[in-house]
Amino acid sequence: METTLQNVFDLAVTVNGTRYEQAVEPRILLSDFLRHDLGLTGTHVGCEHGVCGACTVLLDGEPVRSCLMFAVQAHGREVTTVEGLGTIDHLHPIQEAFQEAHGLQCGFCTPGILTTVKVFLEQNPNPSEEEIREALSGNLCRCTGYQHIVDAVQLAAEKMRK
Amino acid sequence: MIKKFIGKRVMRNEDPRLLTGQAQFVDDVEIPGMLHAAFLRSDYAHARLLSIDVSAARQHPGVVAVFTAEDMGDDWFPGPPLVSPPPTAKDVTFHSRRQVPLVKDKVRHAGEAIAVVIAESRYIAEDAVEDILVEFEPLEAVVDLEKALEVNSVLVHDDLESNLAAQMFQQKGDYEAARQQADLVIQRRIVIERGAAAAMENRGIVAHWDAKSQHLTIWDTTQAPIPIRNGTAARLGLSEHQVRVIAPFIGGGFGPKIMMFYAEELVIPWAAKKLNRPVKWIEDRRENFYATTQERGQVHDVEIALSRDGHILGLKDNFLHDTGAYDPYGLTIPLNTQSHDMGGYDIKNYSSEFKVVFTNKTIVTPVRGAGRPQGIFVIERMMDAAAKELGMDAVEIRKRNLIPPEAFPYEHKIIDQAFAPLIFDSGNYKAVVDKALDMIGYDKFVKEEQPHLRVDGKYVGIAIAPFVETTGVGPYEGARVTVEASGKINVATGIGTQGQGHFTSFAQIVAEQLGVEVNDVRIVTGDTTEFHWGTGTFASRGAVVAGNAVHAASSIVRKKILKLASKVLEAPEDELELEDGQVRVADIPQKSVSLGELAVLANPLRGAVEPGTEPGLESTAYFGPQYGATAFGTHAMILEVDPETMMIKIRRYVTVEDCGTVLNPLILEGQIHGGVSMGLGNAYYEKLHFDENGQLLNASFADYLVVSATEMPRIEVGHLETRSTLNELGAKGVGEAGAIPVPALFAQALENAFHDRKLEILEMPLSPNRLFELLNEEKSR
Lengths: 162, 781
Known about the structure:
The complex is a heterodimer of chains A (162) and B (781). The longest helix of chain A is centred in the last third of the chain and has 15 residues, at 147-161. Chain A is built from five helices and five strands; from the N terminus they run E-E-H-E-E-E-H-H-H-H. Chain A has helices at 30-37, 93-100, 110-123, 129-136, 147-161; strands at residues 9-15, 18-24, 56-59, 62-65, 78-80. Helices cover 33% and strands 15% of the residues of chain A. With 162 residues, chain A is an alpha+beta fold. In chain A, helix 2 (93-100) crosses helix 5. Chain B has a seven-stranded mixed β-sheet with strand order 3-6-1-13-10-11-12. Chain B is built from 19 helices and 30 strands. Among the domains of chain B are: 15-21 and 474-623, Aldehyde Oxidoreductase, domain 4 (2-Layer Sandwich); 369-473 and 628-780, Aldehyde Oxidoreductase, domain 4 (2-Layer Sandwich), CATH 3.30.365.10. By secondary structure, chain B is α+β, with helices and mostly antiparallel strands. The radius of gyration of chain B is 28 Å and the shape is globular. In chain B, a hairpin with a 5-residue loop joins strand 20 (477-483) and strand 21 (489-493). Chains A and B meet through helix 2, helix 3, helix 4 and helix 5 of A and helix 1 and helix 17 of B.
């Protein structure tokens, strides 16, 4: 790899609370940096053109498509990925709700949906079904037909209000 | 109290890993020294390849190798036929033309792979692809099915006399005689076009050849790991035991991931072995639109013969089926179409000839539904046409023709996709239709609500569509169930899993048999070192075929447990209970032994055993059905259309499914919801637009519209249960059911909404634009 690195940029970024300092090529996408440089493979890439939403991460708390950003654009900022939500032993309430309501099948789109929903519920703790569907409209899922995802978001909202 | 798990809404075992980003998908595999591949693909749909110059690409810094067909030498040969034509059928024409690893002489569809660059990173590999110079002689593209069969058509395969790939005729009874008796004969032409499976995860392969251990490991997004292992071993001259194929977590399958072999599956393992370096290739979405298989293109000329009272006397359906540039999947899809042409109706006379046509388009293999939605669309459109001609109610004409419960097993006297006789094993079809009518409140809506809504200027339509789904076909699957010393259970099967919840539904089967908790059962799927035999996950067969193999193996292990425990506890077997991971004497609960202790006793380290003893509490069992179990369902909807914008609102959507024994209603409902969303795409949003040059005009998610949360209605799911007579669990498959009747249902609802116009829907998929055009055509007639 060293032989081909020409213009490198010294990137400093905080991901899920850990600070990383690493030289990267300016053209490396944030999604590739997270997945392949940091090994945070929970963020998935479904379309590489910003439509499917599978690669959604939070940049300073706002949802962004990590496939449409260069890693260097995250310099000095904070990124949260699905790995920053909960762990297998201590699921985040949103993750718990997705398991209980069967809000995932193959699970490929799920990380992007969880990050999207996290911000959505922070902004709207008691959403209607219509608002939930609107919030999910930028995330494609081919398995579930969305119904159990909508149910999971409602359940997550309930859990988080308690 | 023995715990029951089958039929319970059990949460899934696999979810915590998927929810926390800890589940491994193919693109998550990282191996030190791994290289990355990118393919040069043809921009032309049909062109002669005159020359390729890869010298500049080879000089590109970071590039390790560039391979063309020529570089593969004697290792270049087409993929194997995946499904051969039916050996039992007579008068079948079938020209097998299989996909090639890299194009040698002629490009046959846009996106066909011509060369592969292997480099230190994917970024570099893609840069170097741009450095390859190719000289083409563009040829006229074969796109339209009917024109493809004209005598002067350009040929997709120059060595054939025409673009006819296959032809087959099947009949039941005597259609022509039935036609003579008919009071009414209706003819229609019906056109169905292609859609994409559009799994959220694209395809991918990682191949790692370890020269020292002489082992090849392949991670592949396949629905069929064992056949991929066997085929790869054969191609590379290796023993099957030197090749391990792992299908880890897969981001959705829906059919195309059981195409075997894709060009990339032929090239990447070969390159990894040749270079002695691990190689990864991950498909991007644009490649997925061109290089991953698609389905549904057919043109039907249909004729239905009826008596005045609405009884179907016969059906004739001659149709063309688009197979794209090659036909590795044999006749599976058109045979499925024939098997569903008669729906769930008692039709005594049927005649059907199909012609499979080569075109310069992406290869066609099954996509969720696999020819079934086309068959159901055809028969349901004809039922609606007949109802209108006869002035009959849409529900009444359907009920009048349903196969009655006493007629099962109902034999159709044609063969199905598995080349087995098409027999519907069991069912109570009218009850399912009645339940759907009841759930949606059909009569009340039609009599009370719809007239008011129409007075208010609303375009609201109601529809009901019954359908069959042939499922759970052979040949077989197997499973090995083992009680481990920890007392936990390990289960290995040969199938792959792509989100269907096998880690949980199979665990429920085992947990009920062995008296353990569902999360004490570890299910392994998709790893060829864990189980040697099997075919794959397709045709809605996972739960039926592999599920029954798991059931059979765990029943035997249960017997072994009871036999050993009887000796240890000095109590007769029929007094023993399996519960909480213990075997207890029923009346003396303190007298017990754990499954873990028994597993240790069953595998002694010293001492003598009785002759013939097999070690361990383990069993391997197989299940192969005589023929597939056929499920039945009915969907109903109330649809509102904005007559200005043609945007739709689905006010109600009801499904009633009879898929025999339900293993897990939560998972079942999820399967149905997902199927309906794909079906709705096939009805109103998702159409692959090929132009006259064979170019796909909407190869991105920005242009090809996968249904999102805002288009999907809330679906009300009802169940009825008629156990299949073909397997011990009594199960029938359901994986594709949701998608099958939706286009037929949607068309009926649209016609009902525009009841005052002579709208007749004879094509799918539609779109708001197309509906607008159809209504304008009707106006100007």
